[in-house]
Amino acid sequence: MEIVKTKISLQALLQPHRSSKLRIALVPTMGALHNGHIALISHAKQLADVVVCSIFVNPTQFNDPKDLEKYPRPIEQDIMMLREAGCDILFYPNVDEMYGQNEQWHLDLGGLDNVLEGLHRPGHFQGVTQIVKKLFDAVRPDVACFGQKDFQQYKVVEHMVNQLQIPLALEMCPTVREPEGLAMSSRNVRLTELGRKQALALYRTLQHVKADVRRQNLVTLREEAIKSLENSPGVRLEYFAIYDADTFTEADNSAPDRPLIALVAAWVDGVRLIDNLLLQ
Ligand code: AMP
Q1: Ligand 1 centre and the CA of 254: distance in Å?
Q2: What pLDDT score was predicted for residue 280?
Q3: CA nearest ligand 1 atom 18, residue
Q4: 267 pLDDT exceeds 90?
Q5: Residue 61 confidence (pLDDT) above 80
Q6: What is the mean pLDDT of residues 102-119?
């Protein structure tokens, strides 16, 4: 695996592949890799000849400076995992490589940034689109892979790709979970053993909602899920919602055939966790 820190050296590495018409895939990450990230690399390898993984802890998407500061950065371990997974190129730039002084960015996200994650993390999706656009420009991939774990992020990136007509394909890969069901996340290392157990309430509630979605109306389902999470020890609920997975607006009982997704965000052990489940 080649490791490059600048856009120029990345371009030089990719140029011969591009000339040979090889397909290039990008997997953007913030590092502290786990099997969820590795599943994206494996999927990317099936779709392309050359897989680029980026590791960049993007400051503009953190609305909480403490979260940025505490974000884990085990780069040596990440490199080992990427080599083992058969990644071809690691793009590992520093902040100055990606951002100019006082750079401004605003993209109309069609309201996607006013709900759920967008509402609770002001500016987050502007930061996400800002860095993802820069990574797309630097790599010019044929395909880019993202995880369903961050479903709203996927919708936001999809919106940007359509709006700016960026010529690439997007792939969404299923959420990888720990054996007990907790969605893998780089932030899970900050959970205590007890917190890990308490955090299981998120997935358990999502599964109950999925099991009952045909039997109950959505308002009741949501209310019960909220009640159950609010009564779960160690869990501080931020939101629980049932959305139309296509339009990413609140789901409506009167349209039973729409694709539905339940989404949750909650704090456990001072760690903010998100999860979701497609209901059909
Ligand atoms: P992050 O490093 O958290 O920014 O995530 C990088 C990519 O990995 C994003 O597309 C995430 O959606 C994806 N990802 C994170 N956790 C998981 C998981 N448990 N399963 C599948 N994909 C994931």
Answers
A1: 33
A2: 82
A3: 36
A4: yes
A5: yes
A6: 97
Q: Which pLDDT belongs to residue 2?
A: 98
Q: Is the pTM of this model over 0.90?
A: yes
Ligand 1 site residues (CB inside 6 A) read 29-30, 36-37, 39-40, 146-147, 149-150, 173, 175-176, 183-186
Q: Which atom of ligand 1 is nearest to the CA of 185?
A: 16
Q: How far is the CA of 34 from the centre of ligand 1 (A)?
A: 9
> Which position among 17, 37, 43, 159 bears the catalytic label?
37
**What pLDDT, on a 0 to 100 scale, did the predictor assign at position 255?**
76
Burial status of residue 140 (CB atoms within 10 A of its CB: 0-12, 13-18, 19 or more): middle
